[in-house]
Amino acid sequence: MAIEEVTEGPVKAAAALAVPRYPVAPNVRVNVRSGPGTTYDLVRVLPENASVPINCQQPGERVTGPYGTTNVWDCIGNGQYVSDAYVRTGSDGYVAPRCS
């Protein structure tokens, strides 16, 4: 059985909506950066008790947060990154594809 990748249309849109969301640390307002590190520009601040999609992940600056110390950064939108140390993924490693 062949599997065909959907590249456009309503099925593609539905697949995009299927990206799992993960909660950020409770009662913490997490900084969203333009790249995988704290020296990148601040894009916005997530509200307390937010949840985020993880579109892809990449290594960057090592950060310590409520969920440990890691150099993994989660891309939650175009040019929007948060440290995985603040996102409860249930894993110490990658849970999404690496960003290209």
TrEMBL record:
Q: Which domain of life is it from?
A: Bacteria
UniProt protein name: Peptidase
Species this protein is from: Streptomyces pyxinae
Q: What is the lineage of its organism?
A: Bacteria, Bacillati, Actinomycetota, Actinomycetes, Kitasatosporales
